[in-house]
Amino acid sequence: MKTKILSVLALLLLLTGCKEQKENTVVNNYLDFSKRDDQFTGGIKMIPINTPIGKFKVWTKTVGNNPTIKVLLLHGGPGLTHECFESFDGFFPKESIEYIYYDQLGSYYSDQPNDNRLWTNERFVEEVEQVRIALGCDSTNFYVLGQSWGGILAMEYALKYQKNLKGLIISNMMASAPAYNKYAEDVLGPKLPKVVFDQIKTFERNKDYTNPKYSELLFKYYYTEHILRMPVDQWPESINRAFKHLNPNVYVYMQGPSEFGITGNASLRNWDVTTRLKTITVPTLVIGAKYDTMDPEHMKWMSKEVQNGRFLFCPNGSHLSQYDDQKNYFKGVIQFLRDVDSGEFKKG
């Protein structure tokens, strides 16, 4: 009996030692670019993409080295940029998490063809798959983290290519555009001062989206409550830069001219994958926030609908929780990545 106990203890010590050795190797090599083909550019790659109308290039930048955790960041918009994720620089390197900034086709740092045939969910999914292959990621290390529109893209990618994923993170995005519109109209809108809400709806009925007063009302009463909960003059420079670099052609075609729901003839207005979530089997983290433009209760439901889901609630956050509730956001995301990587992930 004593011999068996000693054998078990020896095995545990051996496993612990191997784990610590692996972790030390990752930490020591995290910033070593010497064996990579993108050392010359500091991690930047312009990746060729095949589309139905020809070849283009998209911009990526890899930060760090970790053979078992590689997180591709899918930005929002559509038509925004990777700059919305620059706060990750303050958290992921300390944890030796490899992450990849990526501007989707049509976004500022990538090629920007002017052809609406390109702006479909299906084509963007194939673009992500081509990026994955070019970066050499696979199911042993590949995660996607999609925020807002990027969350739509992450869900659509998982629904087709989850065999290539190690984990999925859906940040601040519901699984249904009609449900999102209903939440904006029935819940968030009435919380505004009535005179303000009436003015906003009048501008939208008249399609007067370029009126400075319309933008002023949204920023003052809506954006600082539900997009990023800080006074506008305190918004991070990276967010201001991302909005400055927005491609309005892609944004309006897919999302519509307003941030107050998916409006007009936007191509995403009827998007809904609620009945398909149950087919997602990979470990999935769904992130919702108390003040988000998206209903956090819907996101909590999503985390239970997928087969291996976990819900992360940001009590101080809004749509850009990676900025206005960093304490909860990054703690939850990092814990999810660690749990999946170690094989200790539990849904809940």
Automatic annotation (TrEMBL):
Keywords of the record: Hydrolase, Signal
Cited InterPro entries: AB_hydrolase_1, AB_hydrolase_fold, AB_hydrolase_sf, Peptidase_S33, Pro_imino_pep
Start and end residues of each AB hydrolase-1 domain: 71-325
Catalytic residues (positions): 148, 292, 319
One Pfam family, short name: Abhydrolase_1
One term under GO cellular component: membrane
The UniProt record lists the keyword Hydrolase: yes
PROSITE patterns, alphabetized: PROKAR_LIPOPROTEIN
Signal peptide span: 1-21
Keyword Signal recorded: yes
Alphabetized GO MF terms: peptidase activity
GO process terms (BP): proteolysis
Taxonomic superkingdom: Bacteria
Family statement drawn from the similarity comment of this UniProt entry: Belongs to the peptidase S33 family.
This protein's name: Alpha/beta fold hydrolase
Organism: Flavobacterium restrictum
UniProt lineage: Bacteria, Pseudomonadati, Bacteroidota, Flavobacteriia, Flavobacteriales
